[in-house]
Every structure is written in C-alpha cells, then in structure tokens.
Design a protein that fits this description.
alpha/beta, Rossmann fold, 13 strands, 15% strand, transferase activity, transferase
C-alpha cells in the first residue's frame, strides 16, 4: 500500500512543506510508500523532502495545451468548468498511478476555504474508481461551502478536521466520518540555525504578514494603518527589536513583497530587520520564531510554529482556521485579529498590548497544554489504519 499526496504543490509555501514533513512522521512509512506530486522539485529537494518521500514532477504546460485552453475558454464561461480542462491535464498522469490498495491524502489545510478547485477534481476522480481518499488536516467555514464542495465532502472516506469549529460545521451539515486532530505541523521539532543579529541585542517581536490580509499598494488601507500604528508604537514605546518573518515565497503571494515595503518605510530605523528566510526550511523558521518574545503572524503555519514552541502570539487571522485553532488551545479572543474585516486602526496595537501585558501567563498556559494537545496528532494514523 502507498499514500499519495497530489495537492502538496511545493515547499515555496513553507506551510506545504510542513504538512508533508509532518505527514511523513505520522505515517512512519518508507520513502517508496509516500508519493508526493511536486510543482517544483528543485525547491522540495533543497528543503530535504526527497530524503523521505518519492517526489514526482508535476506535468508542465505545453505550448499546444495553452493554445487549446485559450480557444476553449472562448466557449466555456463558468470558471470551474474551465479549470477542469487544466486539472485533467495536470493531475490525471499522477492519479492514474493510484490503485485500490492505496490511499490519497488531500492536503493543503485551507484549500477548501477558496473557490472550487483541484481538491474536488482529484477526489471525484478517485471516488469514481472506488479508491480511498482522506481530506487531511482541513479547515472549512460556512461561507466557503458550495454545492460542489458539499457533494465531494460526502465522497471522502474520512475527513480530518484540524480544529473543532470545522468539525462542528461539518457535523451540522450531516457529514459522516469526521475526525478531529490538531494540524499535523504541531508535531514538528524546531531545527537550530544561525539567528539574526537582532537576537543578540535584545528581545524580539516577530511579525509575519501576507497579501491575504494586507496590500502591496501602500499603507492607506485600514490594515496598513493598523500595521504602521503598531510598528510606530513598538519603536517609540518599547525596547523590542522587530523581525519581519516571510513564510511564503510564491510569486504574487510572496510575503517578502509586503515585508520589503515595511522595511523600506523604516529604512532609517535600526530596530527593524527582515529575515533572510528563503534559505531556511520550515523547521529552521520555527527555531527563529521560537526565540521571539512575542510573535504576530498571518500565515497559519507560522502561527503554529509560535504556538508549538509556547511563544505568546497574536494570530492575524481571516478565516475559521485561526479562530478554531486558538479556541482549541483555549486562548482568549483578544489574541486574535481579523486582518480582513478590521473596524478601526487600533486593533493590531490593542492585541499586541494585551499579549505583551500577559505574555508570562500566555506562555505558561501554552507550556501546560501543548504537549497533550500535540500528542493527539498521532491518533490520525489509527484513523487511517481503520479505513
């Protein structure tokens, strides 16, 4: 029996790397038994994935395919129907390798929080062939559900929800075979690496921001105003050094775009640094985050690194995943900020001040519960074995 991961994409998003590496540990299988579809094998090799999994290069678009798709899109208007042509081309060569003895793990965490996509396509393809499939470590909000998603959710052999709000929603929708375990990445260990010089000069606030909660157009958005007010306060009223921590390096989603805007705005300030993160793997980034006194993060798996190493954290969330994970860790709502639906320019600062004032209690709370919470992840293997 083999396990197949068609939705890994690539480790340019360190969250994808984290899920795949943690899944290796949970399964405890051989390299040959875990087959991962990669859209960028070079990146995944550089992150050490090839040492533990079998990487399969995702099919590249041919010139002929691009021409045919362009012509087809003239006649096909509905977006998911358009995408089916692409999914068929990209995924069928990989999916055809999977047999009835195998299990497909549909990873990606929040892939079901976006438009109808390849999660549906790959699951339906295998469901039609009576092959076992598991939605692996997911978060889904009421606002994310579509008819297609509800239908494909019924066709998974099992659904591994990574926080209780998702489990409650899916049960209310009448779905079966729902299992609740923490996100797989909680089990990963920090890997020591050289720390930036700012750690030698004092205490550090790590900040991770993304284009999902911000904008590269400047600081005139409400989030931008929140961010500037926060940074100005830290510089003027505390002795903290600020370390900007990119976590995703994919084209237009690259966290460094926003981070560089911030760094350039404060170019004259010596207490703001940008981590050279693209040369670090997920576990090394976790080590850097673990050394922060406080962390503020928009990327879920950056926040998970902070939680798992007991760093007092503000989650700059925008969906059910942030609320659900914080709830299951029994953290107060004052440690959460919805970076998309802000109502004033003080919310990031207010959350920072709360966490700064209560950092010892928050750290102690996490130290008391994180081991037992994280240990639940290992139960996911028993769930797979029962299918």
């Amino acid at each position: 029996m083999k396990y197949y991961l068609p939705i890994h994409i690539n480790g340019g998003n360190r969250g994808c790397e984290a899920i795949t590496k943690a899944t290796m540990d949970i399964l405890g299988c051989t390299k040959e038994q875990l087959v991962v579809y990669s859209s960028n094998i070079e990146i995944d090799r550089s992150l050490g994935l090839e040492q533990r999994v079998t990487l399969v290069a995702r099919k590249q678009f041919s010139f002929l395919f691009k021409v045919i798709r362009k012509i087809r899109n003239v006649f096909v208007k509905e977006q998911y129907s358009r995408n089916l042509f692409t999914y068929n081309y990209l995924y069928n060569p990989f999916l055809r390798k999977i047999t009835k003895h195998d299990i497909m793990l549909s990873t990606g965490g929040d892939m079901m929080c976006y438009a109808d996509n390849e999660v549906i396509y790959t699951n339906e393809y295998l469901y039609d062939r009576r092959i076992r499939t598991v939605l692996w470590g997911c978060s889904i909000g009421e606002e994310n559900l579509t008819f297609r998603k509800l239908e494909t959710l019924k066709h998974f052999s099992a659904i591994y929800a990574r926080e209780s709000l998702t489990k409650e929603l899916l049960l209310k929708k009448g779905l079966k075979n729902i299992f609740l375990f923490p996100d797989p990445a909680f089990i990963l260990k920090a890997e020591a690496c050289k720390l930036p010089s700012c750690f030698a000069s004092g205490k550090v606030v790590g900040i991770n921001i993304s284009n999902f909660v911000s904008s590269e157009d400047g600081f005139n958005t409400l989030f931008g105003k929140n961010l500037i007010k926060l940074i100005d306060y830290i510089i003027e009223n505390t002795s903290y050094h600020i370390l900007l921590v990119p976590h995703v390096f994919w084209g237009a989603q690259d966290d460094r775009i926003i981070c560089n805007l911030v760094k350039d705005r404060y170019i004259s300030k010596k207490r703001i640094s940008l981590l050279d993160a693209d040369c670090l793997n997920y576990c090394q980034l976790r080590y850097v985050i673990s050394n922060c006194t406080i962390f503020m993060g928009a990327r879920t798996h950056a926040v998970i690194s902070a939680y798992s190493t007991c760093v007092p954290t503000v989650a700059i969330g925008y969906s059910i995943k942030s609320r659900g994970i914080a709830k299951d860790l029994q953290l107060p709502e004052t440690t959460l900020v919805d970076g998309v639906h802000l109502i004033n320019d003080q919310q990031l600062l207010n959350a920072f001040q709360y966490v700064n004032d209560h950092k010892l209690e928050i750290r102690k709370h996490l130290e008391n519960i994180i081991s037992e919470y994280t240990s639940q992840v290992w139960e996911a293997k028993k769930m797979l074995d029962s299918l």
